């Protein structure tokens, strides 16, 4: 498939043709949200798989049985998937990269608790570049510079990081959204795990938190990624570090991101939370 064939547009945002379709979105609109669902919301490469694993381990500790885990993103698959998901038992652990306007309305009406994970936009860009080039369902770029041009203008699958993040600003005080950052999770995972427990009302002991910390470390997850992510293991678990952008960005590119950050996110609550 050509680069153009690999993506299609829905409500002004590009999505991967191989993974979803307009019909998928129509099916998703009819999905029944539940108050007790966990919905992880991320722009790509901000720590989706990490947080999914964290919530999975937490639910397992609390309920002593496997929670319903989403395979891939909520927006991936055939429209029938949502009828199937509607039958699945709670708790359901779901994740999506779609902008807030495309999330089925009843997630907001039911006040489903959402976990928004943010990441520094420069590290996100570098992670996205490696990911798109190694993932056969996504466009390939001949160079970092070419990818950067598309990233900074929002001409990538899921659109602009800055637009995406800014759109969540209007929901930040809704009361059902917990915002965490990739960098804070790297700095002190137990502290951030406690925030998730408090938010979802999960009573976990310090010992259980320690166990989850170990099970969701980059090395543990990478080690098991062959069985959890198959051929895409190395694509999803690359470095797991903060500051890798310094290895690829030119000074000019760094300034371009600074300017976008200033234009969209400076002075916003979410902008202030991003470790920038
Ligand atoms: P890098 O490409 O910078 O290594 P997502 O799951 O949203 O696609 O995000 C992928 C990014 O999260 C990748 O970043 C990946 O390595 C990192 N990651 C995945 N699991 C992690 C973990 N347990 N700890 C730290 N980073 C992790």
UniProtKB/TrEMBL annotation:
The keyword Transferase applies. Its EC number is 2.8.2.-. Keywords: Transferase. Residues 36-268 form the Sulfotransferase domain. It comes from the Eukaryota. It is an enzyme of class 2 (transferase). InterPro entries: P-loop_NTPase, Sulfotransferase_dom. It holds the Pfam family Sulfotransfer_1. Belongs to the sulfotransferase 1 family. This is Sulfotransferase. It comes from Staurois parvus.
């Amino acid at each position: 498939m050509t680069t153009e064939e690999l993506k299609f547009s829905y409500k002004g945002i590009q999505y991967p043709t191989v993974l979803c379709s307009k019909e998928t979105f129509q099916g998703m609109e009819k999905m029944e949200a539940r108050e007790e669902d966990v919905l992880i919301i991320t722009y790509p490469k901000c720590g989706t798989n990490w947080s999914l694993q964290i919530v999975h381990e937490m639910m397992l500790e609390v309920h002593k049985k496997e929670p319903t885990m989403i395979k891939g993103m909520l927006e991936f698959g055939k429209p029938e998937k949502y009828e199937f998901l509607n039958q699945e038992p709670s708790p359901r652990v779901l994740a999506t990269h779609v902008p807030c306007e495309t999330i089925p309305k009843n997630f907001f009406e039911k006040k489903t608790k959402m976990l928004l994970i943010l990441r520094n936009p420069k590290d996100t860009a570098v992670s996205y570049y490696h990911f798109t080039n190694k993932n056969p369902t996504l466009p390939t770029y001949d160079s970092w510079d070419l990818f950067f041009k598309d990233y900074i203008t929002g001409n990538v699958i899921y659109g602009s990081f800055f637009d995406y993040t800014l759109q969540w600003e209007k929901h930040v005080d809704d009361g059902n959204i917990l915002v965490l950052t990739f960098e804070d999770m790297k700095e002190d995972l137990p502290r951030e795990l406690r925030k998730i427990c408090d938010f979802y009302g999960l009573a976990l002991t310090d010992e259980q938190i320690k166990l989850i910390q170990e099970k969701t470390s980059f090395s543990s997850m990478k080690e098991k990624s062959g069985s959890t992510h198959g051929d895409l293991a190395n694509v999803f678990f690359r470095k797991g570090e903060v500051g890798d952008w310094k290895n690829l960005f030119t000074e000019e590119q760094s300034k371009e991101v600074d300017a976008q950050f200033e234009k969209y996110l400076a002075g916003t609550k979410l902008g202030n939370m991003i470790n920038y």
